[in-house]
Write a structure and sequence with these properties.
mainly alpha; 321 residues; single chain; 2% strand; globular
Length: 321
């Protein structure tokens, strides 16, 4: 199994590295360039015109390899594959509109689509695995009503999707942080009893594809992930956490996503409540550090290091339980 995971990871990496240069040229040809908001950090204005929608290639490579090597697809893996495709479609549409008009799909419309997909996927997970309990770190399994589980699972999927999307604001930040998170859940899938080889293989493909993407996305980025990648990969991360039974470990592994999201919520809420005052110099949090004078690569690497440490803490919590 280990050899198969390594082969899948390397294959996904190689395909993305080979296909990305012509894909970037294609994006440039059709004008799929990122339009940077004027209210963002001034240093980001030089990034205007950089091709976006790079995450779509990641999705296509992952789905293509999985379908080719694991056909026919079994019931337990349908949820993450469907999530990757459906939320990726939403993100691609948003990237397209952003490139064409400077404005993407309205937030309420995106949230509605995400919620519908999340509820359907949560229902599929609950019925497929007959889930009647949720695993709590350091405690064990706690009973949960199926309807409550579906509502909670749907919320987790939507929250993770948007959390990764908010984090995707610096070159390589979301891609690297996601890669560490999927490594964690690949290990969890292998350690589960019984093991979940299909989930582990999907994680390996995503890790390989993300590493290939990062080859072109590290500072200064040649291509951006876009909503096609950040929204779909964040949603799939939550779906995999649900299927492995470790959804409550996800906030530890993905604490960067949680903190980035909360910094945005706190900033907006305090700004409205205080009549224009701010908690952070700019939200989300990575922009706050930029405004303090930290170089972009320093912020990215320090967030990556934090993600690695959080992954180790999360894996340790499983052992302690």
């Amino acid at each position: 199994m280990t050899l198969e995971l390594i082969q899948g990871l390397l294959l996904a990496f190689a395909l993305v590295v080979i296909l990305m240069p012509p894909y970037i040229r294609l994006l440039r040809h059709f004008g799929f360039a990122k339009q940077i908001r004027e209210e963002g950090p001034e240093s980001h204005q030089v990034k205007s015109g950089t091709p976006t929608m790079g995450g779509l290639l990641v999705i296509l490579v992952v789905l293509g390899i999985f379908m080719l090597l694991r056909w026919p697809v079994q019931g337990g893996i349908i949820a993450p594959l469907a999530t990757l495709a459906l939320v990726g479609l939403l993100g691609a549409a948003d990237d397209y509109l952003n490139a064409r008009t400077g404005e993407g799909i309205r937030a309420r419309q995106k949230l509605l689509w995400q919620t519908v997909v999340a509820i359907v996927v949560a229902f599929q997970i609950q019925t497929t695995y007959d889930i009647t309990a949720i695993r709590v770190p350091f405690v064990g399994d706690v009973a949960i009503d199926p309807v409550v589980y579906i509502a909670f699972a749907a919320f987790a999927i939507v929250a993770a999707s948007n959390g990764v999307n908010i984090t995707d604001g610096l070159d390589g930040l979301a891609g690297g942080t996601l890669a560490f998170a999927f490594v964690s859940f690949m290990i969890i899938a292998l350690l589960n009893v019984p093991a979940q080889p299909n989930i582990a293989f999907l994680c390996a493909l995503i890790i390989g594809a993300l590493l290939g993407f990062l080859w072109f996305n590290v500072h200064p980025a040649q291509v951006f992930m876009g909503d096609s990648g950040s929204l779909s990969l964040g949603a799939v991360l939550a779906v995999i956490a649900l299927i492995t039974g470790q959804i409550l470990v996800l906030p530890i592994i993905g604490l960067i996503f949680v903190v980035e999201t909360m910094s945005d919520i706190i900033q907006i809420g305090y700004f409205k409540a205080s009549g224009g005052k701010r908690v952070f110099r700019m939200a989300p949090l990575h922009h706050h550090y930029e405004m303090k004078g930290w170089a972009e690569p320093k912020i990215i690497v320090r967030f990556w290091i934090t993600s690695i440490m959080l992954a180790l803490v999360a894996l340790m919590s499983l052992k302690l339980r």
